[in-house]
Design a protein that fits this description.
With 343 residues, the chain is of the alpha/beta class. It folds into 2 domains: 214 residues, NAD(P)-binding Rossmann-like Domain (Rossmann fold, 3-Layer(aba) Sandwich); 99 residues, UDP-galactose 4-epimerase, domain 1 (Alpha-Beta Complex). The protein has 11 helices and 13 strands. The structure holds nicotinamide-adenine-dinucleotide (NAD) and UDP-4-deoxy-4-formamido-beta-L-arabinopyranose. The site of UDP-4-deoxy-4-formamido-beta-L-arabinopyranose has 19 residues, from helix 7 and strand 8.
Length: 343
């Protein structure tokens, strides 16, 4: 065993896939999640894939007493991966205080607990949303941070600053900020995946629900952008690849021989931009399932195009996206069929 990692938000979409990869790499995992956006049943999926059921606490990261109890019960926790956050961009515009409270306070509580318990490091879930519409593509970690377009996006920027200031003040731990691009797909077993509640706001769950007949038609938000086919471009990263980046990050933090800096930031993307229309076409080709769609007006606040320069992660973290877009879309469809058996 390599040590125990505390994974907040570990029953969520990215957290559950990361838990699987941590277990597969020999770590013990303790999950804390308040189940505000996930289902405890996901633990069964993790166990079916790995043969191990991680220790689970239904607890809120904002609850200092609960956090203290968990750290005290597991003095072997050497690293933290902090996924727990509210993540719906639209909802954050309606309920900014909920987002600022949940996303800012939870990080502060976790960092304070780490200091008290001598935890060696934290990997934090940041987002390419901090770049806004970059002037240069692909975007590198040196690109300027742009004014956030939503309270959600702002919480990611402030969270990064909280981590940065804490490290600069000499905190006795290391930190890695991972800026995810657009995570999609599911575990190849189709035993875990993304569980959107209500009407999905993100492209892939809406697309797979449309393919499954749950939604009538997918709306493509704009075909008049300055891109080759007029639709927006993103860097879609397979969720298992993304999960593996967390294992690399935690290994880097925990290996003193590497002498890595106290704070590092990495883009986690493929380096390839894919348009909305190209994505729909690829999905149809690889699954053979049609996706009824129509072009509608632009969605307010959408970035025209963004994709990662992943060189820093490739060279320093030793991580590279490996899954093809075709396999990733197949996995998203297999997961949709798993949760909608009639599809
Ligand atoms: P998710 O909603 O599936 O997972 C987040 C988990 O955190 C959920 O299980 C939820 O119940 C839990 N949670 C929320 N607040 C909590 C709290 N106060 N205490 C304990 N648990 C709490 O989301 P995800 O897609 O897996 O995202 C994980 C992280 O990655 C988030 O920080 C998100 O902002 C970030 N991120 C996600 C994306 C994306 O597109 N999915 C992109 C960039 C960054
Ligand atoms: C992708 C593309 C849409 C739905 C958001 C957050 C970002 C991040 C990930 C966390 C865009 C188009 C979508 C639909 C469509 N998360 N689209 N029809 O907007 O890149 O990023 O999620 O940090 O912060 O803003 O992802 O999946 O919503 O959209 O045409 O029904 O699909 O316009 O071009 P986005 P998305």
């Amino acid at each position: 065993m390599k040590g125990t990692i505390l994974v907040t938000g570990g029953t969520g979409y990215i957290g559950s896939h990361t838990t699987v990869e941590l277990i597969n790499s020999g770590y013990q995992v303790v999950i804390m999640d308040n189940l505000s956006n996930s289902n405890v049943e996901v633990l069964k999926g993790i166990e079916a894939i790995t043969g191990v059921c991680p220790t689970f606490y239904e607890a809120d990261c904002n609850d200092e007493a609960a956090v203290e109890r968990i750290f005290s019960a597991h003095p072997d926790i050497c690293g933290l991966i902090h996924f727990a956050a509210s993540k719906a961009v639209g909802e954050s515009v309606q309920k900014p205080l909920l987002y600022y409270r949940n996303n800012l306070l939870s990080l502060i509580v976790m960092l304070e607990a780490m200091q008290r318990h001598g935890t060696k490091g934290i990997v934090f879930s940041s987002s390419c949303t901090v770049y806004g519409q970059p002037e240069q593509l692909p975007v590198t970690e040196q690109a300027p941070i742009q004014e956030a377009l939503s309270p959600y996006g702002n919480t990611k920027q402030i969270n990064e600053e909280i981590v940065r200031d804490t490290i600069h003040a000499g905190a006795p731990f290391k930190a890695i900020l991972l800026r995810y691009f657009n995570p999609i797909g599911a575990h190849p077993s189709a035993l875990i995946g993304e569980l959107p509640l209500g009407v999905p706001q993100n492209l892939i769950p809406y697309l797979t629900q449309t393919a499954a007949g749950i939604r009538r038609e997918l709306s493509v938000f704009g075909d008049d952008y300055n891109t080759p086919d007029g639709s927006c471009i993103r860097d879609y990263i397979n969720v298992v690849d993304l999960a593996k980046a967390h294992v690399k990050a935690i290994e880097r933090i925990l290996n003193p021989e590497l002498g890595s800096p106290a704070l590092e930031t990495f883009n986690v993307g493929t380096g390839r931009g894919v348009s909305v229309l190209e994505l729909i076409r690829t999905f149809e080709q690889v699954t053979g399932v049609p996706v009824p769609h129509k072009i509608v007006g632009r969605r307010e606040g959408d970035i025209e195009q963004v994709w990662a320069d992943p060189k820093h992660a490739n060279e320093v973290l030793g991580w590279k996206a490996e899954e093809s877009l075709a396999d990733t879309l197949r996995s998203a469809w297999a997961w949709q069929k798993h949760i909608t058996p009639k599809a």
